Amino acid sequence: MNPRFFIAPAMLLIASTAACTVSSTEGDPAEDSERNLVGEQLIENTAEAEQALTTAQIWFTGGDGANVRSGPGTSYAVKGWLAEGTSVGISCQTTGTSVEGTNIWDYLPGYAGYVTDAYVLTGYDGFIPGMPMCSGGGGGGGSSLGATIVTKARDHLPYNGTAAYCNKFSTYWGTGCVHWCSDYARYVWMQAGAKHSGLSQAAISFYTYGINNGTFKSVNSTPAPGDAVIWAYSTNWAEHVAIVTEVSGSSFKSIHGNFDHDYNGISSVYEVGFQPKSWDAGTGAPILGFVSPVK
């Protein structure tokens, strides 16, 4: 959507917020349990385990143990499982499906897979200080998909659309002269190599993408750079979508398409400084949640 596009008159704000939305019948995301163990108990590859930057333990599973998956989310294949009390090395962290109230996933190089941080005793409530974010392909260093998205998003600074909403991103997608927050966000994800099938001109399509790919995170979760942030009153109707560029504690920076930052009636690509999760981006709507991209 276009927060702050012709924002001064209340009638025009209402008109603009209604123009960038479509209905959706998707339900709320279910929180999956990773204690329903699948496959065999894994054996550590000690050579690969040397990549770990810190050691932790599988814990808080009620004695069940935890699944190890090929990616950071419950939609990824289960490689096997680890018993409660198993010592594990972590080389990076990322975000994915929310489990037991956290969306953080830990990459275990000794097992070449991910475990939800809900069942890992790291000594920290959240990300481990100094721990790098995982690469987009899963584990191991290199620039992450999220970092690539942020770079691609900033490549379009500065860019101005027209007063009639005509813009290069919607031209690429063939959607015409429309409110273009979603067209910009999906264009950037596409440029960065993220999966973008299922995304559309409607901002709510990012919520649907998150549900279908297991990467939707509630507003209480910690976003990651490259995530989409959605402002909406419900899961059927979204007002706006933008891309997270930096995170600091519970605040985040974001870059927006179709954003009238100086109230001159011209929508732009614009990066906003750190804001709390209570910020409504000029839409009047709360943040519905965050969505991580997948490859």
Given as residue ranges, the uncertain stretches (5+ residues, pLDDT < 50) are: 1-31, 136-143
Assigned CATH architecture of the domain at 10-30 and 143-291? Alpha-Beta Complex
Write the element-wise H/E pattern from the N-terminal end onward.
Answer: HHEEEEEEEEHEHHHEEEEEE
Q: CATH class of the domain at 10-30 and 143-291, anyone?
A: Alpha Beta
What is the fold named in CATH at topology level of the domain at 10-30 and 143-291?
endopeptidase fold (from Nostoc punctiforme)
Structural class: alpha+beta
Q: Got a strand count?
A: 15
What can you see in these coordinates?
The chain has 295 residues and is an alpha+beta fold. The protein has a domain at 10-30 and 143-291: endopeptidase fold (from Nostoc punctiforme). It has helices at 10-19, 46-49, 145-154, 168-173, 181-192, 205-213, and strands spanning 54-58, 66-69, 78-82, 87-90, 92-99, 102-108, 113-116, 120-121, 159-160, 216-218, 228-234, 237-248, 251-259, 268-276, 287-291. The strands form four sheets. A seven-stranded antiparallel beta sheet has the order 9-14-13-12-11-15-10. The protein has a three-stranded antiparallel beta sheet with strand order 4-1-8, with no helix packed on it. Helix 3 (145-154) packs across helix 5. The two termini are 25 Å apart.
